[in-house]
Amino acid sequence: MTRLLIVVVVTALLAGLFWFGITASQGRAIGPTQLGRVMPDFSRPVFARYQAEFGETLSLPTGKPVVVSFWASWCGPCHAQAPTLEAAWRRYRDQVLFIGVNTQDRGNERQAEAFLNQSGITFPNVKDLDNRLGVDYGLFGVPETFFIRRDGTLQHRHAGPITTAQLSAQLEELLQ
Amino acid sequence: MRVLALILIGLVSLGQAQEVLLDPRVFEIGRQLRCPTCIAETVADSAEGISGEMRLIIQEQLVAGKSEGEILAFFQERYGDWVLLDPPRRGIYLLVWASPVVVGLLAVVLLMIYIRRGQQQAAAPLDVSSDELERVRAALRQEG
Amino acid sequence: MTFELSLGHFGMASILLAFALTIYAMGSGIVGALKQDASLQTSARFAAFAVFLATTTALLVMLVALLTDDFSVKYVAETSSRASPTWIKVVTLWAALDGSLLLWAWMQTGYTALLALVALNSALRPWALVVMQGVQLFFLAVVAFVITPFQVLPIPPLDGPGPNPLLQNHWMMALHPILMYLGFVGLTVPFAYAMAALITRRPGTEWMQPVRLWTLAGWGFLALGKITGGWWSYEVLGWGGYWSWDPVENLSFVPWLTATAFLHSAQVQERRRMLKAWNILLVTLTFALTILSTFLIRSGVLSSVHAFAEGPVGPWFFGFFILVMLFSFGLLALRWEQVRDRSEFDSVVSREGTILAGNVLFLAMGFVVLLGTLFPLIVEAVSGQLVTIGAPFFDRVTVPIWLLIFVLMGIGPLLPWRRAEGQTLARNLAWMVGGALLAGVLAYTLGVRRTYPLLTVAIAAYNLVSLGLLIAGVVRPRVRQGLGNAAAVFTRYAYENRRRFGSMVVHFSVVVMALGVAGSSGYRLDQQLSMPIGERATFGQYELLVTGLFEERRPYKVSRGATVEVFRDDQFVTTLTPRINLFGNSPQPVSTPSVRYTFWSDLYLNLAGTVDPHDPAQQSVILRVVQSPLVAWIWIGAVILALGTGYALLPSPRREPMAARESVPT
After folding, report:
1. pLDDT over 70 percentage in chain C
2. pLDDT in tens, B26-79
3. Burial A1-28 (b: 16+ CB within 10 A, else e)
4. What average pLDDT does the structure give for chain C?
5. Is the model more confident about C21 or about B128?
6. Which of B6, B129, C112, C493 is paired with C655 by a 20 to 30 Å CA distance?
7. What angle do CA A62, A65, A66 make, to 5 degrees?
8. Distance separating alpha carbons of residues C546 and C622, to the nearest angstrom
9. What is the mean pLDDT of residues C170-198?
10. Looking at residue C307, what DSSP letter applies?
């Protein structure tokens, strides 16, 4: 009888583990999110169309919450989420800085410019020409959006295209 | 020493037509890092863009004289423990490091118990009832 | 709306018929077995044939649908493409999740039908068939009700996306999955018989007699499946390696390890009537691990290069796995007292001792590989943290265990049963260790300095001496008896003792493959070069010259590559053409490396970066270059393994002496 009990217990433990696996694998982040990490500062050249308003290079501001969104010209979902980001920027521009980062686009300057033209984005975009900023941020892919608090720590990161609801929820939390 | 070797390789390759973009050491270190955007490939082997960038970073840092440990730490800082293919030696991960040793010891112990028990049983006299013993005796008498 | 009969309906009907017939077969089989009713049992067997006919029809229907581009069938619409060449359309049948399950189900019904046809009548046969049909009921249910590949689309699309580009790149795709499934399904037969033995309370040697050939064949298919998978990796994935401790590779490796253990401990039961409970445990574990690996791979719980798209089958395989665990291990637990034997170990230093030690090592390796593969999941479940366990860990823990197995493989076959005699053993060991030391010293002086390759060479020599001693032990007494000269005597021996000779050949193939692995992993040269077009470049002992770029256009893919001429000592050797393929359905290009195979080492070129033959500005090409010594020995060893296993499966020309002992009731 003890042996039967062992079989049942082991099976139950395995069942628990694998059921966790099934449920967790849906919508799991690709890698660790490292929330609370102090995000590295950077100084990158700004795309020509934004230089008048934002200067030639842009860095992380101090004391103000920032949304950093990575994109590439060949990335379809990046294009799809552009209006969402733009709408949020227009609403929150006094309180939160939005910075777009063009990454993983070596040799595609023309296409990157075209992307910005078509999207009608008015928040500043910088060029990550050597892709190092992406690596510094622990980027898993594009699009990926980072929400950074006033004190420079990471509140949340969202891999994949973001919806208005998700964006608003994070922004509200940033402003608290 | 390694820096010297790299410089020598660099100098030697200046004299040749090709450019060694990535030193063999890059692949050695790359084999210890997980490609962040791939499903299950190493930085050394993956064809994805980010792995290519990471290989270039490793090459640069090697030329700058960084050690293997420093390079691995560089990526660990940015991507977390998860990017290392060898789990760190602390906390819960110690279980994984200890498990082969534990398994080995367990296997040896169980094996010894099994063999010891077998040898004891082989040495112990058979447990036979007196009826059966009588039947065997009768059969032996008949045979011979 | 008129109802038009299409291929999809026909296929669906066949699968549903197979499902219904399986229920009948199981029912009549169970009742027939319980009541010992011969006619019911025969009816069950005929039902098994009918099921196979039905699933074969379904498979052919799918094949026809693929070849005629019938996009009204759901699976065809999802995975095939008009532009694909014929052989890819055939391969598409198993290239995606749904189709591969259909193939597995078909093979399962095929094995059941074969078993119903050839298995000798016994008390075990009806129950073994019932268990086989239970397994096939599950697969048929999943195909018929969960994934429904034959579903008819009311508005068929004009074209489909085509299969995954990685799977279109190489003809090995045609072979590797088939071998794997033949292996997995083949190993279900011993499991079915073991269950039958438990159900009928006949756990002695009776259940093992009919399964010996099935086990060997299943094991052989699985071994070849794994090796061809490695070769596919080598030729397709572009990094010059063949094994990466990827979760899917690991998960299908572990049941092979337990199957290998079983293959050996089965002999101990045959000869010494020992390890009865152990054997049932091993074969049950093998089957449970097979289902576990299928579940984990297809459910998306562990991701890998092999990832099938996450489908709805995950929870179903989960349920089946739990069912298999409870039923099979539960039954074993209940019958344990009746199954375990009085172990009569005379001495550890004996054939059975080394086999048992080897078993323990195989299981230990399986356990650490499984634990390492599952550990990230366990950590995530317990603490929420994400961690990776990769190749460095697996290499570190499996290599020592493997080396111990390698040593046992040499000494085991030389030991007699029961107890080894001291003097003979010492003499044999002296030869073997001597050979090892000699080879080790020789290798060291020739430049082999790394630990693992050096140890492998030494133990390989030790094994070769062992094989020599085995052969001498067979040949010398026969020559002395005047039965002929050495060659004739040995040929006669090999002809008559197929099992023994086959196993010698297989062990020899293991030595060959071990050397191949040691050479290619220990002394691999890896570089990434930027090579200007038209100028020679040096790599290792070779000189490479990129003569130009090319482009090939086919309806389903566009290939762009570089033509590279290879020279050695200023002599032209060969031309290699590494290329990058772009398939219609995917923006992600797939590179095809170009390999020069030689006996001693491979030269491997893979394109990195982009190649544009139409761009006049492209002056150079980025190539990943790899030189792998001895890697061809792995594929050569695989062929030898296949030959040895095949030979061992052949029936004996005359009745083996063992058979006489087996017919005596326990």
Report:
1. 95
2. 988 999 999 888 777 889 888 777 888 899 999 999 999 999 999 999 999 898
3. eeebeebeeebeebbebbebbbeebeee
4. 89
5. C21
6. C112
7. 95
8. 11
9. 91
10. P
Cβ contacts of C220 within 8 Å, gap of 6 or more: C183, C641, C642, C645, C646, C649
Cβ separation of B92 and C379 shorter than 8 Å? Answer: yes
CA distances from C357 to B114, C548, C663 (A): 11, 58, 29
C190/C131 Cα distance (integer angstroms): 11
**Is B57's Cβ below 8 Å from some Cβ in A?**
yes
Q: Tell me which of 3.30.1380.10, 1.10.8.640, 3.40.50.2300, 1.10.357.10 is the CATH number of domain B2-83.
A: 1.10.8.640
Banded model confidence at residue A136, pLDDT cuts 50, 70, 90: very high
Q: pLDDT at residue B2 above 70?
A: no
Over residues C613-634, mean pLDDT:
89
For residue range C196-241, list pLDDT tens digits in order: 999 998 877 788 888 889 999 999 999 999 999 999 889 888 788 8
pLDDT in tens, C458-487: 999 999 999 999 999 989 998 888 888 888
Q: Please, what is the angle between helix C451-480 and helix C422-446, to 10°?
A: 140
Of C455, C444, C463, the closest CA to residue C507 belongs to C463
Using alpha carbons, select from C522, C632, C531, C514 the residue that is nearest to residue C578. Answer: C531
- Are the beta carbons of C526 and B24 separated by less than 8 Å? yes
Residue ranges matching CATH 1.10.8.640 in chain B: 2-83
- Asked if B81 lies within 8 A of A34 by C-beta distance, the reply is no
Tokens of C584: 């219609």
The B residues from 60 to 79 touching A (CB cutoff 8 Å) are: 75, 78-79
- Here the ipTM equals 0.85
**CA separation (Å) from B36 to A138, B58, C201, C272?**
8, 15, 53, 53
| Residues of chain B with C-beta less than 8 angstroms from the C-beta of C382 | 92
Q: Which residues of C163-172 are buried (b: 16+ CB within 10 A; e: fewer)?
A: bbbbbbbbeb
